[in-house]
Amino acid sequence: MYSAISMSECEVCGCQVRGEPILVQIGGAKMWVCPKCAKLGTEIKRPPRAASPGARPPAGKPVSQQRRRPRDVFDMMQGEVVDNFGELVREARMKKGWSQKDLALDIKEKENLIKKIETGFLPEDNVLKKIEKSLEITLIESVDTDIEKMKGSSMKTTLGDVITIKKSKK
């Protein structure tokens, strides 16, 4: 059975903490530790009102101010990613004779990320740009260029135009 560690015990080594425990971040996890184990992570500064571990924020502050808005990748995109980007990356990589590991080393990313991208995982924009530069391909289409292409093309007659023309002749 799992036994809960009381607030007077170090969450890393389990020893009794003399005095007040220190809030430390170790590998992404926040833990209350003794001064000896505090060296293993980065100390998190506590607000002056937090008197004890596990203390709740003052009731006067709304919770919405404390939570950060989740990052939306689509807000940061500067264009649209082509539909078959995974296939394009794989084909361009193989055309150069590179393995997934070679591409990963060239763009300074993990090999596992390249495998995911080739199966359809959409990475962040900066990773796509590094792949574009390395493989000399286009994965992000600028929205502006699509609009310019449409302006440059000749106008085609639509069904609505035909109806309008026939009505005006009568």
Secondary-structure topology with pairs:
Blueprint: E1 22-26, E2 29-33, E3 42-43, H1 63-66, H2 73-76, E4 80-81, H3 85-95, H4 100-107, H5 111-118, H6 125-135, E5 140-141, H7 143-152, H8 159-169
Antiparallel strand pairs: 1-2, 1-3, 4-5
Helix pairs in contact: 4-5
Order of helices and strands: EEEHHEHHHHEHH
Structural class: mainly alpha
Helix content: 25-40%
Rg on CA atoms, Å: 28 Å
If you had to describe this structure to a student in words, what would you say it looks like?
With 170 residues, the protein is mainly alpha-helical. The chain is built from eight helices and five strands. Strands 2-1-3 form a three-stranded antiparallel β-sheet, with no helix packed on it. The protein has a two-stranded antiparallel sheet with strand order 4-5. Helix 4 packs across helix 5 (111-118). The longest helix is centred in the middle third of the chain and has 11 residues, at 85-95.
